[in-house]
Design a protein that fits this description.
heterodimer; A: two-stranded antiparallel ribbon; 13 helices; B: mainly alpha; about 70% helix; globular
Chain lengths: ~325, ~350
């Protein structure tokens, strides 16, 4: 990190920069999970999707850079990550809608399966360096080099931010958004409307998995910008908890993702100014934050405001 | 309960998971073929490395014993209707507690007593860890799947923090580790084998869990609450206490697995204790349909597959994650087989089932 020169100012700067970098996967996965859960199914497997997406993006970016050049290659990688996510999403969507099959259990299986596939195909790509996505500097107002190098945002972050109002509008004002909400809130009513519950849920899960796969691309092609077997440390699962915290609203997903990205940046930011004796405990901050948030927001007496009615029920 | 009139049902609950595993083998074979390996040769290698010789059997059993214990961490709460996946975290805190006890007592007291204290420490630590998830579920309505999973990461972070800092043995340089526990408190091997006593722990815990769930009023109450929590409340069952007790027992099993890993294999605490036995335990529990006796069998099967991980890499040039892919395929197939119950006419009872027969089925 280049923040040493700033002394203690490096901490808030480090957290801000870490928030901008680290919130991207949270944002994309939580938006995907938001869409999925609005249709009444949970997809815990997005953790596996994230890993498989990260691997696919890195592999395609590396393999195609010789053919299409290093500018276009990472974008092909992003697309590949999304498509890879859709494949896993289709498996989840089909399997979790079979009778008596628990969607949470399918999610756990998909974490193992997706993670296994990512490590299986990703082994040859641990060493080579793939072309990375470009970054957009927003620190140009400052003369300090550390500030400039810290304040960079990913185009995928902008993509995520752009999807937020779109998804919000989609749920509120479009026919298809109404279908998704109807299927998620009251499958019987949706059936009476003549909507195919299976296909609406399938489409929601596949589209959500696409976003999660792109979130994986942000891990391997932006930050940390490498492919390793441990590149995702539960971000996909935290995003699921984050959606509960965000009350299934896209705008809240954005704020929550920023909060989580910031929590994730605590450990490295303190390490950069020499406080590293609690490095691992600071790194546990997002998990503890998630737990605390769930403890505060959940209640045994009532279902949460905003929760899709059919969520977590067998149908 | 397998009386003479319900054999078809019993057969169904054996045949379907078995069929799912076979289907998974076929899919895995196709996968291997696509990856450029000869599937039949891969099957042969897995069989030889897992069950081909007495030495292979010992490797398999070594890996099966922690699986038996971690599987109970998912299987027991599942009977209560809870999906707990905090196995890895409970294993880590169990190992942590065992090392703390072992380091503070080791050498001062006879080895047997130290081992007993280590086992107790790991049982309590793992138990409390999962009980926390159960308590959050009961008192705050927090989703136990997500909370127990988050606790895994917290446990690993806690362990990493302690072995990097306060508990670190500066003389051990290859990776940050705690001090070694005294040799008198190492868990020995079964006579004439390389298999440690942890296997016996796993077997005993599984049998006890089976008796507890299937043959006691406590188990009956837990299964009732798992079937219909509202009915259980109306019947006056203490659902909260049941949740806490079952979660404690579940976590203590995984914690004991951590103690076994520390006392018999690692001898000190470091990152190596995070070795996916917890996540594999979830798979075992689901494949065994949360039956504590079936978990023993499935643990041995999966232990064999894990033992074959190395040979896949050496003889077939497949990455070590191949085992993970196989686990994923088995898991997905077994879950799909859940939807097939009652679809095959062959497994339907020919006579009308007796009234009490309805309770017996899972």
């Amino acid at each position: 990190m280049a923040t040493e020169a700033l002394g203690w100012w490096g901490v808030p700067l480090g957290i801000l920069a870490g928030t901008l970098r680290g919130s991207v996967p949270f944002l994309l996965v939580s938006l995907g999970e938001c869409l999925t859960e609005k249709s009444g199914k949970i997809n815990l497997g997005l953790e596996g999707t994230l890993l498989f997406g990260a691997m696919s993006a890195y592999a395609i970016s590396y393999l195609s850079s010789g053919i299409v050049g290093p500018t276009l290659a990472p974008w092909l990688g992003v697309l590949a990550a999304g498509v890879a996510g859709m494949v896993l999403g289709a498996i989840h969507g089909w399997l979790s809608q079979q009778p008596r099959v628990n969607d949470v259990a399918v999610g756990i299986a998909m974490i193992i399966f997706g993670g296994g596939l990512a490590n299986f195909f990703g082994k040859p790509f641990i060493q080579p360096q793939a072309p990375q996505l470009p970054t957009i500097p927003i620190g140009g107002w400052s003369d300090l080099a550390p500030v400039q190098s810290a304040l960079q945002i990913s185009p995928l972050f902008l993509l995520g931010v752009a999807i937020v109002p779109l998804m919000s509008w989609f749920f509120k004002s479009t026919r298809w958004g109404l279908y998704v909400r109807a299927v998620g809130d009251s499958p019987d009513a949706a059936l009476a409307m003549g909507i195919s519950i299976f296909w609406v849920r399938m489409a929601s899960i596949v589209a959500g998995s696409f976003l999660a796969g792109v979130g994986g691309a942000s891990l391997s092609l932006f930050y940390p910008g490498v492919w390793t077997e441990r590149i995702s440390s539960g971000q996909g699962l935290m995003a699921v908890a984050l959606v509960i915290f965000a009350r299934w609203q896209p705008w809240q997903c954005l704020w929550a993702s920023l909060l989580f990205g910031g929590a994730q940046a605590l450990g490295p930011a303190f390490q950069s100014v020499g406080i590293d004796s609690y490095y691992y405990l600071f790194n546990a901050a997002p998990y503890i934050l998630t737990l605390l948030i769930m403890i505060i927001t959940c209640s045994p007496q009532r279902t949460l405001a905003g929760a899709p009615g059919a969520l977590g029920k067998d149908s | 309960m397998a009386s003479t009139t319900t054999w078809r049902r019993s057969l169904e609950s054996i045949a379907l998971p078995l069929g799912a595993v076979l289907a998974a083998l076929v899919i895995f074979g196709v996968f291997c073929a696509l990856a450029g390996a000869n599937p039949l040769a891969v099957y042969g290698s897995i069989y030889r490395a897992a069950f081909g010789s007495w030495s292979a059997w010992q490797n398999t059993l070594l890996r099966a014993s922690p699986l038996m214990l971690t599987a109970l961490c998912t299987a027991l709460p599942a009977r209560l209707g809870l999906v707990i996946i905090g196995n890895e975290g409970a294993l880590v805190v169990g190992g942590l507690a065992a090392v703390l006890v072992g380091l503070s007592l080791g050498g001062a007291v006879p080895g047997g007593l130290v081992l007993l204290a280590m086992a107790l420490g790991s049982l309590v630590a793992g138990g409390l860890w999962i009980m926390a998830a159960g308590a959050l579920r009961h008192y705050r309505g927090v989703n136990e799947t997500i909370s127990s999973l988050l606790l895994n990461y917290v446990a690993i972070a806690l362990m990493s923090h302690l072995v990097q800092g306060p508990m670190r043995d500066p003389a051990f340089v290859s990776k940050p580790s705690s001090f070694e526990i005294d040799a008198s408190a190492w868990l020995g091997t079964l006579p004439t084998t390389r298999v440690h006593w942890g296997l016996l722990y796993g077997l005993v815990a599984s049998v006890l869990a089976y008796i507890l769930i299937q043959r006691t009023t406590f188990g009956f109450a837990a299964r009732t609450a798992g079937g219909n929590v509202r009915a259980a409340r109306i019947a006056g069952l203490p659902v909260g206490k049941l949740t806490l007790a079952v979660c404690f027992l579940a976590g203590s099993c995984a914690g004991l697995a951590g103690m076994v890993e520390v006392a018999a294999v690692q001898k000190r605490l470091n990152e190596s204790i995070v070795s996916n036995y917890g996540y594999a335990g979830i798979l075992v529990a689901f494949v065994a349909r949360h039956n504590p006796l079936a978990t023993v069998l499935v643990s041995v099967l999966l232990g064999g597959i894990l033992a074959a991980g190395g040979i896949l890499q050496r003889s077939h040039d497949l990455p070590d994650a191949t085992v993970l892919v196989f686990q994923g395929i088995v898991f997905l197939c077994v879950l799909y087989s859940e939807s097939l119950y009652g679809r095959f006419a062959f497994f339907q009872e020919r006579e009308a089932p007796k009234p009490e027969g309805a309770v017996a089925s899972v």
